[in-house]
Write a structure and sequence with these properties.
Length: about 550
Amino acid sequence: MLNKLKYLLIVVILISITSCKEDFLERTPTDAISATDALANEDNMQLVLNGVHRGLFSQSQTIFPGGDSDRSGNHYWIPLGDNLSGGLIHSANANNLGWRTEMQWNSHTQPTSLTNELLWYHRYNIILHANLLINGINEGNLTETSKLNSILGQAYTYRAYAYLSLIQHYAKGYLIGNPSTDKGVPLLFSSESPFTSQPRSTVEEIYVQIGDDLEEAIKAFEKGTPRPSGGPEVKSQLNIDVAYGLKARWALSKGDWQTAADAAAAARQNYPLMNESEWKEGFNTNDLSEVIWGSNVIQTETVFFRSYFYLASNTFNGAQIRNNPKIADRRLIDAIPDTDYRKDVFIIDAPNTNSSASNNQGGLHPDTGLPKDPNYASDLDAYNARRAEINSEYGITNSFNQHPYMQFKLKNKNPGSTDPDDIIYMRASEMYLIEAEAKAMMNDITGAQNALKPLGEERDSAYDVTVYNTQESLMEHIKFQRGVELWGEGFGYTDKIRWDEGIDHGADGGSGASAVLYQGAYQIEKPSLNDDWIFKIPQAEINANPNITPSDQN
């Protein structure tokens, strides 16, 4: 690994632990402890885990040497999945935090980009913490207890999570490549210096390790202390349901359909589907009934203008949103039945108020003072009235621009503010959709319909799953349901790789994206034919790791 992670691990642990102690309800700073002390007892091991929990959403310079304040962990990596895949559409030219550069595919395709480097080292930082705990528990002489098993389960789950993230970004997709020979990422088990650099393992070797880690995690959790009940803070702690959910994702991405279906069903058991009022609350808290796992971001830990909602929510009071409201693909939204309440949060008739809108239909004509928006042509009163209505309903002001098909699925708990909100990583709805896709791929039509039915009937009062009675129609419907249900939650990139689908903003009437703004990313060939879907190995890693040479570059 690069020098950032080559130093004695204690340096990294100290940064994480001293940043915040997240002992469920208690949030107070804690003194630094040595690496030996970190493994001395369960409480200290929990502190290491708490540092990892916080590291998921903190600015990267607080996690490892050489980090950068322009990337705040999953605040950035989660919405990046929909930004890259063209689902989270930019309506104007704004590039705060490199968000436009990402959208134009000019970042992850460059080996020296900040995104490539920091995603790599953030995930390996998680692995090093996990290795410390796994090795310390398995090789130490602590008495086995239920709490120790819970800690071990979380460590294995975190390592699996980090490797799944790495292999899905820095290697060719399992289903579209040759996993037994395709180059993956370095497989590391060390937790003490000096760290030994490793070559790239194959995709298959990494997938096998992920599966092994998840099996060990589930075994440990079965003997562990259950995750306590409580507020949104407890869902930052991993439990057996998170392990099953990751197992479902892992199996789905490799085409192990039965395992994916079984794991997804197990993961969602304790998380009832949200009703309409919950679904429309804004996806800003782990308190929502179907949230399985998420980061609880509190006031003292906010990253302000580095947050998920700054990049994706049209109610966050930041320049990225005010000047560039995010819109959804109009082809997707137009396909949602009027009986489906999810359609309500995508505002098809929002007036285009931005004079800098990329479609050149925003603001008022300088000569006539009338709207350029063809939906409100010659009707300034209707234009202003609709703008005021949307402002009132969603808690924003005229300092926020509006645009047709803008979304309010993601919205701040305190609209118009910069207050912190939680980052949701895993929900029950995703698990229903994984089970449905897996069963459809096995041509189990009835099984797939039964998996879809609870979700569809909750969201759409006229839902009839029986009309999707072939494998082809089921898969098309599942893709549609994932697009609507999981919009903005970061799954677009991995979905398209799994389905081997490209991006075409101009097809079928167009998505609403601007070809001038999107440039080369307006149309992208499917992943099996275009290796630009694969993130570049950081050049700094190639420079520092003697076992990875320029010929290893993606």
